[in-house]
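Board notes (copied after class):
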Amino acid sequence: MTFKIEELFKVEGKVAVVTGGSRGIGKMIAQGFVENGVRTYITARKAEACEETAKELSQFGECIALPADLSTTEGRQAFVDEITSRESKLDILVNNAGAAWGAPFAEYPEEGYDKVMDINVKAIFMLTRDLLPLLRKDASAANPARVINIGSIDGLRVSSMDNFAYGASKAAVHFLTKNLAVRLGPQGVTVNAIAPGPFESKMMDYTLSQYRDKIEAENPLGRIGQPTDMAALALYLAGPGTTYMTGQVIALDGGRHLGARQESDAD
């Protein structure tokens, strides 16, 4: 038994899939994996963006673009078939691809609600199910395969923004994480979730452009998340140090879901 950091966090030689890996949080996680010796497949709906990011990250290690529309049955099946033809096993699956839709309550469209739920919840369930044979292949209690779902602090608290489907979908992701943790644990697969607060991403572009100062001022730690924050937590969840952790939803938000910044008398 060893307690050396390089052994507790070692991920070199593993194989990972990161959905929505061409930008934002997915790209942060993919880069963390690639730089630490993980052969990383990234997927995104837009082929050009996916290929461009894979080329960029390949300067650090092995990153492979497999563009796919995971919101459709046909797209998921094509992606699963391609991965299966390339790899005999899968060590890490990061379910990051997601969508948001904002509209006032009285005007919220059924189309938008369905799109968010299909991409954010159903696609995670279906892709995890379809990739389970690869995840189980060499998995064991001592060396489990990892599923990391990307939720949101909007699934932990009620947002002030009109993102009704998004918050509900992320709360569903958190519960699905717990459900799958119980079901897949005996098969050698751990399932955990990261619930991020604000990070630089296309989904957050408009909000940060309008309200960044307010968001940072209200955060207990006084800032938004940085790429290293996200990569570090994903690496932790993928490494040997978390073989006994499953079903957890970890907020990565500077404490914002607990409340707004409170100035003490000493400040």
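Comment from the instructor: The mean pLDDT is 93. The helical segments are 5-8, 24-35, 47-57, 73-86, 110-136, 164-184, 205-218, 227-238.
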